[in-house]
Target: Phosphosulfolactate synthase
Amino acid sequence: MNFLTLPKRTTGVRKFGITSIIDLGLTIDQLSSILKDYSELIDFAKIGIGTAYITPNLSEKIRLYQNHNVIPYFGGTLFEKCYHQNKLAEFVDFLHSQKVDWIEISCGTIDIPLEERINIIKNLKHEFNVLAEVGSKDSNKALSTEDWINEMYSLLDAGSQYCITEGRQSGTAGIYQTNGQVRMDVFQELTSNVNINRIIFEAPTAKQQMFFINQIGANVNLGNVKPEDVLILEAERCGLRSETFFLED
Model:
């Protein structure tokens, strides 16, 4: 029975209002239980950092996600490792062998020039749907606001479906200060200049999630969400938590 007036959420195959979880080692049994109850609340699943390369029963995990209409992809660190070792061709074959059709292009750990990332996206966009991450995992390498905007525009124009704002699992790098606070200069420039529905904000903590929800709305795209926090996040989106209580459409 639905009797409350709540913010309207996107449903089905979402183009925005996306929730992307980070899978850092869920077992098949754990994942099966989560998806049984919450798959309709999850859109993407990042098999985080480089764990996809050593995950037991990887094919089974990928199929489980796909059978529940959740899009799996591998964390950008694995892409960067392959790039660093000149193994991108092998990485592409690996993705095809696992029937994974989304790829993350990032430079969070190693410096990959923007033009090089643009060329990689242009070469791969006909084989994969592309997610491009902006920002460094090193808090000492903070991009200027101008660089954030330039990279976002360039990577989206090159063929990325979405751009992800780096935040790490800790929420202390990329778009965040080391204390976990959002870099407001970057946030304001992004929301003023880039199509907000094509940005996925990494937001691993409830405080960060609620910041973006209150600033942008129930259907902001959020990533690096812990699997166990999926229902809490949906409650936050629906104004069913004190901090988002007065959220409107």
Notes: The first helix runs from residue 28 to 38. The beta strands are 19-23, 44-47, 71-74, 102-105, 129-134, 162-165, 199-202, 222-225.
